[in-house]
């Protein structure tokens, strides 16, 4: 987000399912963030299978969380992909690259905290262009 960020939450064990997504991401983090932002909050995730279960949609609906709809298989429209790329490059460029899961989690967390805020601000500001592109793809209708 512009002028800030949340802590990086790493989910490292097992397969992410719709229920795990609800229990480990939506309820403890997204719901609270939505409450802090207020009614203008629009949630953006990607089209991962675990994000698209009926249980997830029911959870979002019951929490009053509006989801921004994106075309399937369109990572270029999702600004977080730029952030993940920058984070990955930072981790790969470390003097001592991670050698196991624990050192990878530590490296990701440390490098997340070091990402320039300007990068995050630029990504957030790029949403206007991305939404306009998405509207064009949906024939002029706002896709949410």
UniProtKB/TrEMBL annotation:
It comes from the Eukaryota. GO terms for molecular function: nucleic acid binding. Residues 37-97 form the Tc1-like transposase DDE domain. InterPro entries: RNaseH_sf (IPR036397), Tc1-like_DDE_dom (IPR038717). This is Transposable element Tc1 transposase. The gene is X975_23399.
